[in-house]
Q: What sequence folds into this?
């Protein structure tokens, strides 16, 4: 089964395209970092806060979405329904965390904490150990040529697809297991938009960030689509340690 960048079923992509001479996992990542605004520029980003609107299959109303991240691995996300308050929340402070749904809190498992400790939540391409990154193929998603990279971190395989023409990250795929059931997740990224920040000592100039994001989870023959449109995004301001408690 194959999905486009929005998580919708699509035709089987072409796998037989030859990879051009000189293209490697490193050159693909270098082009991505150049496309989003430059490696040194991206390194200046220490935090990000974004807000937007989210639609989830089976949920009749649009939800307000907030995501805050701080290097290297801190993250807090929430979904709020008008008139109903906060429906979902997840927090990781770098050492521990929890998830909450409709007031019911569940602490993260030891395995999940170990996984999150190894993540870089802002521009992970800046931190990859290239021994764990390989260029798998030149394929097609939604009619566009993409390079498929395999990234192995913490024993988990993740496939990242970078648009050949633009260099942007277009799709991410990975499989996890929960309660004995495999869950395949497809993340889509689109509508890259340039954002600048003049907060703090370092100016972040024209960093490209995807303002349209999708998630499709498939498990046991059932799927759930989550689509988010980002309305506001800021770098290096509006985030503090208190947000991850």
A:
């Amino acid at each position: 089964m194959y999905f486009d960048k929005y998580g919708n079923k699509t035709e089987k992509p072409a796998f037989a395209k030859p990879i051009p001479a000189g293209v490697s996992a490193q050159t693909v990542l270098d082009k991505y970092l150049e496309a989003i605004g430059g490696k040194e520029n991206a390194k200046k980003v220490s935090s990000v806060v974004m807000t937007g609107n989210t639609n989830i299959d089976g949920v009749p109303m649009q939800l307000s979405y907030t995501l805050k991240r701080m290097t290297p691995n801190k993250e807090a996300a929430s979904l709020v329904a008008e008139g109903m308050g906060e429906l979902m929340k997840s927090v990781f402070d770098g050492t521990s965390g929890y998830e909450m749904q409709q007031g019911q809190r569940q602490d993260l498992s030891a395995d999940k904490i170990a996984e999150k400790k190894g993540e870089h939540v802002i521009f992970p391409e800046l931190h990859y150990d290239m021994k764990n990154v390989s260029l798998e193929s030149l394929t097609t998603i939604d009619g566009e040529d993409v390079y498929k990279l395999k990234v192995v971190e913490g024993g988990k395989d993740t496939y990242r697809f970078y648009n050949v023409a633009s260099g942007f990250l277009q799709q991410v795929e990975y499989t996890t297991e929960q309660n004995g059931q495999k869950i395949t997740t497809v993340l889509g990224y689109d509508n890259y938009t340039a954002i600048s920040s003049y907060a703090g000592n370092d100016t972040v100039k024209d960093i490209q960030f995807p303002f349209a994001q999708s998630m499709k989870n498939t498990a046991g023959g059932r799927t759930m689509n989550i689509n988010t449109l980002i309305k506001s995004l800021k770098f290096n301001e509006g985030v503090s340690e208190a947000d991850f408690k």
Remarks:
- Residues 51 and 66 are 4 Å apart (CA to CA).
- The two ends are 39 Å apart (CA to CA).
